Amino acid sequence: MYTEIESTARDHGLAILGALHPRLTPTKSVDHGTLLLLGTDAGFWSQFKSSPEGRDGLENPIDRWSKRVIGTLAKQMGAQAHYPFGGPPHAPFVSWALDSGRVFSSPTKVMVHDTMGMMISFRGALLFDQEFDIPAPRLSDSPCHGCVDKPCTTTCPVGAMNAQGNFLVKDCYDFIAQTGECVTKGCLARSACPLSQKSGRNPEQTSHHMSYCKF
Q: Among 31, 53, 145, 158, which lies 20 to 30 A Cα-Cα from 177?
């Protein structure tokens, strides 16, 4: 069943970025079944750009796309859809991601995924009542432990992301407003992660997300 869901999600530019059985791995807000976390993959941006939401010029296009596409998948597969937006209350995606064993806290305290690096974009989750087989996590420990240079801690031009793990949001947003460099190129610190560089993320998608970083 997992493989079938994975294939269907891929057809829409989505990937299963985490999976867990809440009964066996206690996590927030859910206590049964199988929880699959869906995020964007390398094929997402072209799918989105050609969608009604990608062309209509209205607000929150990716959230609206996510709700339509993942909501439809949930109905087709007999699952319950959850989203990382639309609250409060907000679904605890950070807890779910960390509990899946495929996401870790980086030295900057920003999440890092075992294949997507710091270019994680969760768009929703599917909760199934039944438990079915899911793959074991790819790694037994954080990929950051084997990263010698840890460029995510030193690349930010204003030190907003640093080795102390204090994300200085105002400094980050002020820099973006003044130069736009991280909007056009994407967050330089996140992009410096070796795994991020292998994620296949379209730079235009990253620029779109960064354009929302405003006070």
A: 53
pLDDT by residue (tens digit) across 19-68?
999 999 999 999 999 999 999 999 999 999 999 999 999 999 999 999 99
**What's the CA dihedral at 142, 143, 144, 145 to 10 degrees?**
70
Instruction: Give Cβ neighbours of residue 14 (< 8 Å, ≥ 6 apart).
Output: 38, 39, 40, 41, 44, 69, 70, 123
Residue 54 neighbours by CB distance under 10 Å: 17
Q: Is 113 exposed, middle or buried (0-12, 13-18, 19+ CB in 10 A)?
A: buried
| DSSP 8-state assignment for residue 195 | T
For residue range 123-136, what is the model confidence (pLDDT) as tens digits? 999 999 999 999 99
